Here is the input.
Amino acid sequence: MDWMIFITVILRKMKLIHNISRRLRQLKESNFARGVKSFINSGKDTDYTRAPGPFTVMIKKEISDHIRSKRFIILFVIIILACLGSVLSGLQGFSDAIKAAGRDEESFFFLRLFTASDETLPSFFVFISFLGPLLGIAMGFDAINMEENKGTLSRIMSHPIHRDNIIIAKFLAAIAVLSVMFFLLGFIVMGIGIIAIGIPPTPQEFLRIISFIILSILYVSFWLSLSIFFSVRFRQPATSALSGIAVWLFLTVFYSIIVSVIAKAAAPSEMASTQQVMKYQQFIVSLFRVLPSELYSDATTTLLVPTVRSLGPLTAEKIYGTIPGSSLSLGQSILIVWPQITGLIAATIICFVMSYLRFMKREIRSR
Amino acid sequence: MGSSVIEFTDLTKKYGSFTAVDSLNLSISEGEIFGLLGPNGAGKSTTILMMLGLTEPNSGSVRVCGIDSTTNPVDVKKKAGYLPEDVGFYDDYTGFENLMYSARLNGIPEREAREKVNYILDRVGLSEQSTKKAGKYSRGMRQRLGLADVLIKSPEVIILDEPTLGIDPKGVNEFLDLIVRLSREEKNTVLLSSHHLHQVQKICDRVGLFVRGKLIAVGDIKSLSRQLFEHEPYIIEAGVSPILKGVSANQTFDDFTENISAQIRSIQGVVSLQRENDLFRITASEDITGDIAEVIVTSGLQLKYLLKKEYGLDDIYNRYFEENETDT
Here is the structure.
């Protein structure tokens, strides 16, 4: 009987493949597909007849500039090395963890690749939350003012292009490069994980990792748009780089010190009611939630540790009826961190809009 | 000349309380080479920026080829090429790659762009350096590459902002010749801003004098100088040796030359005379160079040199400037 089941499965698979290929063929003939294809091909030397629009041309140039720039290559190597180091060190104590957990759908140990650490090195996502801002700042701090100082901005602007094309191209090209880089990084780690532990990720784990990667891109985009804002605001690249780093240092180091000072001052007495303690806790947490890094780490922990079900203080009512140790579905996890994600997107957009408005209003003089 | 290509109507630009361009009215016709002359900070560059929609006027309008620059800058930029003052290129791209990027931005298909870039590089004399990184270009080469960058879109109007700044004299001549030759071939209208009078004098059909945001005179150079120096068309400089010879010792040099000054003043046709130690500067209504020489030589002074100058833009410029200064 076994072989019959086997054959039916194979037949079914073949039908599926046939269906997919037919769909693909249909898609190929559709207008949308043609548009995508001509977009992809437009940069190739073989396409001599049609010229791409100036916006496409600019995005391509920015992307190739980023990839070739030494600055990006250096940061890329640093981040790859740091992340690989953290993953490999995390793998050290991994086999024991697997044995302890047993092969269980609910244990999500593949996700631990991204959160595990063996005390010597911080885990993968901590590295990203630490190095990501630097990457974002490095990719944006001289976006506009460098062109201005070199006198290329006024020359490029004398060609028939819209002014906003420049700043949007800068932003999108950097995001495209970042996205490729983070997906690459994520897939490398997954590959290492599969080879090292020999168990492929479940679909849910895979989706969680993808959403983690998208979240990381979002987080770095925030720093990118902040540094592009500084590059529009300040004429000197050094000033804008320093302002970016200053903001980053303030938010990572000094802000938490200030918050802890406030926390000490505002701490309720031992005799305070539970309600007061709750309020106080929520106040401190919301102070921390101003930080983009806090938003990011909240969101990542929730996405990568499916058992996390609340980001604030937990009350007895909240855990009433839950099964201890049970995990949330991906949709539920995303629902929990939705405010964080919205916050990150909003911060990115605010920075971008500020730089956009400033750039559109400004007068472009030769150097 | 044909119909007007560039049209300024009551164009005004203010920076706070400072008026950079003050109700400019001017029309430049097709095929003309027009020179915008003025000292630094006169508002020439601001005028040019407004032509390309790179900054917005407070009132009035500019039309290039009949298109409003403020509301429709992209269409204007399709027709007008602009070479900014001190043009910059991407340093790690070669000259060829820089131009290819510009060609692509102008929507020229790849193969056509390649041919065109090579052709234009040849025209501006950079075909041998086309594979060199633009960062290694000299100032003059960069300027020529800038001109190539303007020509890549086959413009109807070429706008050049201080194109000769920082190039050596030989390079300046070559560059100006290039501009004239190319624009005459393609029948382009050229607007050129400069504070370098002699260069403008050499190539422009008409000039506009721009001082403190106001266009105070327009016309070709001959008519400008005729207007201004009606009564004193000649300017003569005479230098003498300060060593006195065959003169009694109790007479000082100053006394002696004062005496000669009086003699020169009495020559018919002299309008004014200035003396700085051993240099006389005389303006006159007639050519009296010979008379002056005679007076000096017979008086016993040694005549070192004698120069008859004609009024150039320098003097036009100074004169307008003086008048403007006394007005305020």
About this structure: Residues 259 and 288 of chain B are 19 Å apart (CA to CA). The mean pLDDT of chain B is 84. The two ends of chain B are 37 Å apart (CA to CA). Chain B touches chain A through 38 residues (CB under 8 Å).
